[in-house]
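## Example record

The block below lists the input lines for one assembly entry, exactly as stored, with component labels intact.
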Amino acid sequence: MDTTPVTAPGNDILVAEEVTKVFPGVIANDAVNLNVRRGEIHCLLGENGAGKTTLADILYGVYRPDDGRVLLNGEPLDLHSPRDAIEAGIGMVHQHFELVPPMSVIENVVIGTGAKQWLDLSEARRRLEEFFADYDVEIDPDAEVGRLSVGEQQWVEIFKTLYFGVEILILDEPTAVLTPQGVDELFRILRQMRDEGLTIILITHKLREVIALSDRVTVLRRGEVVGTVNTADVEQRDLARMMVGRDVLMQADKAQHDTGEVVLKIDDIHLASDTGRGSLKGLSLDVRGGEILGIAGVSGNGQNALFDAVVGVRHPEQGTIRIADADTTHAPPHKVALQGVASVPGDRIAQGLMMDFSVKENLILGNQRARRFARAGVLNRAEIDRFADESIEHFEIKTPSASQTTSTLSGGNLQKIIMARELSGEPRLIIVHQPTRGLDIAASEYVRRRLIEERDRGVAVLLMSEDLDEIFQLSDRIAVIYDGRIDYVAEPEATSLEEIGLYMAGVVEAAGAAP
Amino acid sequence: MSDSGTSQQADEAAGSAGGSPPRGRDLRTALMQPDGWRLERRLEVRPTYELYATVIALAITAVLIGLLVLLVGVSPFDAFSSLYEGAFGDRESALETLVQSTPLILTGLAAAVAFRAGVWNIGGQGQFIAGAIGTFFVYDMFPGLPAPLLIVAMLVGAAVFGAIWATVASVLLVRYNTNEILTTVMLNFVIDYFLSWLLSGVWQASNTPYSQTERMAENTYLPRFFDDSRLHWGFAIALIAAAFVHFMMRRTSMGFEFRAIGVNKRAASYKGINTAVSIVAVMAVSGALAGLAGAGELLGLHHRINFEFGEQQIGFTGIIIALVARLHPVGVIAVAIAFAGLVNGATQMQISTGIPAALVTVIEGVALVLVLVAAVACRYRLRRGAVHADESAEGSE
Amino acid sequence: MEDFFTYSVILGIFVATVKIATPLLIAATGELVAESSGILNLSLEGTMTIGAFTGFLVANETGSLWLGLLGAAAGGAALGLLMAVMTATVKVNQVVAGLALNILGLGGAFFWYRSVYDEGGAVALPTVDRFETVAVPLLSEIPALGEVFFDQHWLTYFAVVMVPLTFVFLYRTKYGLELRSIGHNPEACDMRGVGIISRQYTAVIYGGVMAGLGGAFLSLSEAGQFFPDIIAGRGWIALAIVIFGNWRASWILVGSLLFGFLEATQLSLQAQDVNLPYQLLLALPFILTIAALVFNRSRSRVPLALTIPYHRGER
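Predicted structure tokens for the full assembly:
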């Protein structure tokens, strides 16, 4: 496998040179080099957090690079906004669509275009119909966009971008919202577009798509380019290795011990999400006391829905969830919590904390009616203060005082507040989602150590993470979630990063590995 | 509990984006601006900043009003001093100011409670009327009750009617997701006309062409504190209500939940708080407070409902008071007394300087506009230079 | 009761309906444009009062009703500008800003009026000669219909013409399309380089001008004078009409006429001393508006970003 950048001067249309982008606490792009040739389909492949979307956003003028530069046709490109990028001939379709749902397809297409004040849709209509005819897409130009399927909306987004006459089209995970047939159709059309001279940059984490579609692929890992290769020269396994392969795995510092009874049993649950992304489609799993079940997967494959279903914020349309002996399929969150379920949500600020409350108030959030903290509906301040001081000390929360406003604390301390709150009730099941995202090493290690302690205490731990190191380090069993299902469960010793990576990327599906 | 949770909802009231702290992509703007001076959102708005900002806003209000007065051809000093004289100059006027502040404290609290929970109850005016209707309803229904019991029953009736009228909007909100701002505004008018119908029909006093009820029996009058002032027990009720609101919001589980849904409804539901129940409950409390204001005016001052009963727009003024007070119960008392003083002193000012008493409404409007702008402004700080990684919440351990 | 259903009474009701609907319609079509840009301007009552006053002031000082209309437009625009500054630039909560400016408008008009005309104390209320009705040649000769629709004030014709014009503006011009898309999804527009703040200013100031003209109809065409309670809740009714009309110009016309009809009927009932609860007719517009909110919720045309301030880069 040849991983040296393939360069062919004269052919390059869009080039990124040593592009670096730093976000608070994270280097999203670290001296990234990319060259995209005119008229090719170029995939950006990588796991979540590898820096694919950030790189694309830089090419599209959403962010400005902290260092390095972007060249278009050999000329330096200075973008201040997406509008600049569009005018330079670069268009992008984000995962989050920029559509106006109550308006028609054609109105969406012409927003921001045209010179005349009198709205003339005939030109747009002609081009739209031509376009749809060319590519064999059936969408009524006068249909209200909000009533179209997500796949059709994506077509509107793509055409909206092309309507500006761009030469380069960037697509961010376009297949996530499509059915398999939809994917085939998209690929057919993208190939046709390429053959007609369009340059396409496709962001994906799915190896099959890379192999099926692309001419060349650039693999990113943790903000760095691993390499750019001709797709024809490589196998899926090579790419998987490039994508997830890494240095020596940190060894789990945890003792072997026996697991107990099944605490959480999920049987064939279905839960549709509004956007079509991240639905659950017949997911089953079980977690025993004293084990950590790690769920690996790329985000958007149903992790949020699984979390919501277990804690009771959303209820599955089908299937059952049992916690110990209780059926909690349709139980509201406070009833689920009474079953001894603790939860650490993936978005700690939006889902887990009241940023404008004091630290101590957050420490009792959800337990404000518990006997310990309230009598006859009146909060027991002495007990709350005692508990808060205890938690702050015990969980090493760095805060000037228990009355400090939570928003002033760092991410690690925010997570410790949640951990302290959730573990205080001596739960029998802990469900955690992305527990260390955005945390520094010390805080991450702390959180992981706590989870292992809980497991050793006999608690069932359901861990969802996109960080494979974390999964391997902590899990007693590893499952992979892909497209709303879990079809692969293995013990860490019996599997490999590469194997997991293949399942995460959907290369192998339902290969008979029963949960 | 600490007071640290208070800034947020007031911000909601004052401005814009509210609960969601910066995350993810929203660094975009900050990062894309070239170096130089720029506005940056503060991580924390300390209550002291808010206090300073409010004081500065009120000072600017005074200056602007002074200029306006000058424009009319009166010395601002004369205007303000006569205003002050009329409001607090002697015992009589000071006590009268407290009389006027009584309903304003209650409707101010009503708005503050709801806003703190992120529920936009603009219906204080209607709930105030509903309270008066409830009072008279109980009076009408139980003529035989002994006085103390009757007064208590009437106050309860007022609170219940106010709460019920608020609940119409909250149930529509949780059931049909209808915007409570719009429904409460509409319901204000509906109850107004309902009252008008009562006054010209079933409750109309005999022997009079006017739309008004009979004068209520003297044993229903709220006792007065002094012989020489109209100051009645309603004022004490208002102060007790403020203490109750403060206690409820800061010291009870229910108040905790109200504040929680005001700060972050999503996290609240993840932590098992039933947001629909909380919305209905907080609206009921809010409506009950406004209803009590109606009872106080009726039993303490007017003793009959007539067509002018709602004309002072006490419910709407309560909203302004709550916002200027940044939703603090104690602040509500202070601002309500100040506003009542303005109203009370304006008569004196008009007599001695010729400035129209309507200046008071202008003062209220300008004060509110400036306090709102100040509240938004104090959430930002002016800084120079580019954003660095170590400045964020995530990075600094 | 039989007396009530006479030809002249019923004709009178219809003539009054159109008159009463006029200021509502003018203010509501203006508010429709403002709300289309995503800004809910709750200060219509105050803005109409300011318009009624500045219109009267200028007309009274200059002796020209037409200059008075200009004055009303300027007064409304000033309050609209303030609203735009507070909501589009400073991004104060729109509801609160609207309530604040409402008070400022009401108080300001009242104060200004008193400082200009009330100095001596007991002076007779100043009046101006009102706008005359303008009969449309030929059409006004049609029995009944002519009197109801073609013998009205200039501002009434203006109001009716503004209905299709507002529709055409919002749905057939590039600017209108962009305005509506801002009201639904400002971020999508920002990404395509459509300036948001300038358009919101335009829309809200335009809404203010229209509210000012609506107010001026009452002071210059109806009353011929100004008094503090001249608007008497019509600003709020205009807001209700926009909701009742589900943010569509044609239905706003229907709503204005319907609400005007209810008001005209109740006035007539009272005048004829008919023993029916006229209050029900007065309350009906608000009850119908709440009902419309409930029943239209699945096909609501409310601008999706109404009242939500746009901060670039926040989702």
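The longest helix of chain B spans residues 147-176. Residues 46-69+369-378 of chain B form one domain.
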